[in-house]
Amino acid sequence: MSDRSKFWLLSFITLLAVGLTLSLGRWQLSRAAEKERLQASVEARGQQDELPGAVLLQAGPADLLIHRRIRVRGRWLGAHTVFLDNRPMNARPGFYVVTPLQLEGSGQAVLVQRGWVARNFTDRARLPTVDTPPGEVRLSGRIAPPPAKLYELGQAQAGPIRQNLDLAQFSVQTGVPLLPVSIVQAGEPSEGLLREWPLAGAGIDRHYGYAFQWFGLSALLAILYVWFQIVRPIFKRPRI
User: What DSSP state is assigned to residue 106?
Assistant: First the structure.
């Protein structure tokens, strides 16, 4: 391959690499901006008045209620409690505990993300002890989408310990009519559960850090190209 061909090949490869790293940096910035908007929305809705539980039963777009504070009354359907695996809190591995709450005066239920509990690593099949009070309970929290799903190999799990939970499938399995949203319970630790939930916009600084790394790598590639392909050959030319 001639020197000229090598020059154009290296130029093409460098151009692709610089373009790719710039695109990845811009993508990280867009993710940071998206999370900032989400956090601003959560904070704005969180400052609005607390909603009564009856609004969940009213017709209307569910997304208009997302992140609003709410107070509900109902009865735990404790037999259908699920422990969502691989959910850390404060960097500790464990479960998110979710239980359907049958709303007062209604046949419908809403899935409540009740809190976090550590798992037993000696006996991984052993369920942690969580208190589920009988009778009517009252709780406060915020309306949220269904629990986020993690990557899962193979078919969806069944039983009390699961990686993910699909509301529609879970409703069919249990025979419990579930609303299309969930409630993230707020308050101090109780019933054996912690409730130090991560912020909706968590990870913003990490995205900015990744963007800086990608832009830095893009600049480094450009500088190395200019030095080795343009500046250095000039100095190596024979002087007359």
Answer: S
Give the confidence band of 47 by pLDDT, cuts at 50, 70, 90.
confident
Both tokens assigned to 32? 């940071």
- Beta carbons within 8 Å of 150's beta carbon, 6+ residues apart: 86, 163, 164
How much is the pTM?
0.75
Model confidence at 59, pLDDT cuts 50, 70, 90, reads low
Q: Residue 198 has which token pair?
A: 């991560």
DSSP 116-165: EEE--SSSTTPPPP-----SEEEEEEEEEPSPPPPP--SSPP-SSEES--
Per-residue pLDDT reduced to its tens digit, 171-222:
999 999 999 999 999 999 999 999 999 876 667 888 999 999 999 999 999 9
Report the candidate in 25, 69, 86 with the shortest Cα–Cα distance to residue 219. 25
- ∠181-198-147 over CA atoms, to 5°? 25
Among the listed residues 91, 62, 78, the one whose alpha carbon sits nearest the alpha carbon of residue 183: 62
